[in-house]
Design a protein that fits this description.
534 residues; alpha/beta; Rossmann fold; Luciferase, domain 3; GMP Synthetase, Chain A, domain 3; 3 domains; eight-stranded mixed beta sheet
């Protein structure tokens, strides 16, 4: 009798090896500029064998159970195999967007105490620029590398490792509550926090495929990053659990989305925030509705385009809400009102609470909070930050930091991020990283970054405005600054607008007063410049 606990990822894959070894459960696709499809498939057997090889490589580099390593890559099959390898070896993986660079990357690697990194070739420059400043980072395993002139101490590429003999390592992870990974938050108000996410969290969520409307005949697709909980848990996790033949793009591409779903016969895909509008804003085509997609799992479908999106593309909308720390609401197809983020599943209780921590009357906005159905608080652990961990579940409620309301029938509606955080394409943006790049320009004397309601209309999403005081109007170089931001910042961090002002309004304590800048903001003003690439 099989007694492997599938709350642990390695056990899940080992179990499927017994029953579905040769199922091509994952297909990774990248479309070249000439339109050619480059794909790699993985069966459960291949995932298991490659994970065993990577686990042995981690052992060979001295990585001990409980220690961490970073994953810096886009969506590749090796990302998933490294996840499984960590589960086999009892180590902790730290997924990091390969676009992250400079001080932020150094902080994330150091704070998570990464002993090494598995890094794709296109992220080498970012990693190499900080690696000498991180003595704890002892090794790098390169993926698909074509340039060996980097500062890695590794002499063996991941490509070489995957050609080695398959070892037979035991699964060292036995406790579902042991850490599986560190998922970084966006760091809206400071340095990003690292969520110490246990195996149980992944294992419980991937069992929710049925609640998400997935059927055994579905073929899911995602282009969202596996460094993000959405793609990792909902698409990858549910597919591995249910044996669904998922298709995963190396990165999101709105122009190729429908081509990919048609090519592979995909029946469902996931979207976040402004991505919905990006797809909707594509030029209309006569065959928009001719696709195999049954429904879209959306987090942030704007109410204004909800019905038109359904009709244009001949799909249903399944709206949901949640965070990497926990919390979940579901608005299944055809059940809840348009614009609602849903109701909590039977395992959770959701409430709206005011500033005095009292439950809000129906229809009154307040903070969205969750607890388990049995009345206990969800377990949230931020690495090396017990104070933030306690605050997140204060008085037994998981505090989401989002403002919303509940209607008379119990349906939840999202309003905005508490505290004015900037959310863009599903991620919260830390203005400090943008302000630093701009402030370092010699012609800038002051800068403050804030958000305004997104032109897209996506719920909770904002466009980024950098309010700038220049030495003189003659020295200001908005075009050059936009170009610099594109070179120095992650895509989601690039300002939508540059707003030139005579001074940043501030309080007596020198705190910028955002509300006055919002009042002054006029996108048609000759002192406001919009990024041409957005």
């Amino acid at each position: 009798m099989n007694t492997r606990d599938e709350l642990i990822l390695a056990n899940l894959i080992a179990n499927r090896m017994d029953t579905l070894a040769n199922l091509d459960v994952l297909t990774f696709v990248h479309i070249d500029t000439d339109g050619q499809y480059r794909e790699e498939t993985r069966t459960y057997a291949q995932l298991w064998h490659n994970a065993q090889r990577i686990a042995a490589a981690l052992d060979a580099r001295g990585l001990k159970p409980g220690e961490s390593f970073a994953l810096l890559m886009q969506n590749h099959p090796e990302f998933v195999e490294a996840m499984i390898a960590a589960s086999i070896s009892g180590t902790v993986f730290v997924p990091i967007d390969p676009r992250v660079q400079g001080a932020k990357l150094k902080y994330m690697l150091e704070f998570a105490e990464c002993k090494g990194a598995i890094c794709a070739d296109y992220a080498f420059d970012n990693l190499n620029s900080v690696i000498d400043e991180i003595p704890e980072l002892q090794w790098v395993i390169p993926l698909d590398t074509q340039d060996r002139n980097h500062t890695s101490t590794s002499e063996q590429s991941l490509n070489d490792i995957l050609l080695s003999e398959v070892p037979q390592l035991p699964i060292r992870t036995t406790d579902p509550d042991a850490p599986m990974q560190m998922l970084y938050t966006s760091g809206t108000t400071g340095d990003p926090k690292a969520i110490l996410s246990p195996h149980r969290r992944f294992g419980e969520i991937v069992k929710l495929g049925g609640f998400l409307g997935l059927e055994c005949t579905d073929r899911p697709y995602t282009g969202l990053s596996l460094t993000h909980a959405n793609a990792q848990f909902l698409t990858l996790g549910c597919s591995l659990k249910m044996g669904l033949r998922a298709v995963i793009s190396r990165k999101f591409t709105k122009s190729r989305l429908w081509d990919i779903t048609r090519h592979y016969g995909c029946t469902v895909f996931n979207l976040l925030g402004g991505m919905t509008n990006a797809i909707y804003s594509e030029p209309r085509k006569p065959d928009d509705a001719e696709n195999p997609v049954r429904y879209v799992i959306s987090a942030g479908m704007p109410k204004a385009i909800w019905s038109d999106f359904k009709d244009r593309f001949n799909v249903e909308i399944f709206e949901f809400y949640g965070a990497a720390e926990g919390g979940l609401t579901l608005n299944p197809m055809g059940e809840g009102p348009i614009g609602s983020i849903g109701k909590a599943p039977p395992t959770l209780e959701v409430t709206i609470r005011d500033a005095e921590d009292r439950e809000c009357p129906r229809g009154t906005p307040g903070e969205i909070c969750f607890r388990n159905a049995d009345g206990t608080a969800p377990n949230v652990r931020y690495f090396k930050n017990p104070e933030a961990s306690r605050a997140k579940t204060r008085d037994g409620w998981l505090r989401m930091g989002d403002i919303g309301h509940m209607d008379e029938d119990g349906w939840l509606f999202f309003h905005y991020r508490d505290g004015g955080g900037i959310r863009r394409n599903g991620d919260f943006v830390n203005p400090a990283f943008i302000e630093k790049v701009i402030a370092e320009q010699p012609w800038v004397s002051d800068v403050f970054v804030y958000g305004v309601e997104a032109v897209s209309g996506a719920p909770g999403e904002k466009d980024i405005v950098a309010a700038i005081v220049s030495e003189t109007d003659a020295t200001a170089d908005p075009e050059g600054l936009f170009k610099l931001c594109e070179e120095e910042l992650e895509k989601n961090f690039i300002p939508t607008y540059l707003q030139f002002v005579d001074e940043i309004p501030k309080t007596a304590s020198e705190k910028p007063q955002e509300r006055f800048l919002i009042e002054m903001f006029d996108p048609e003003s000759d002192r406001v410049f919009r990024a041409q690439s957005q």
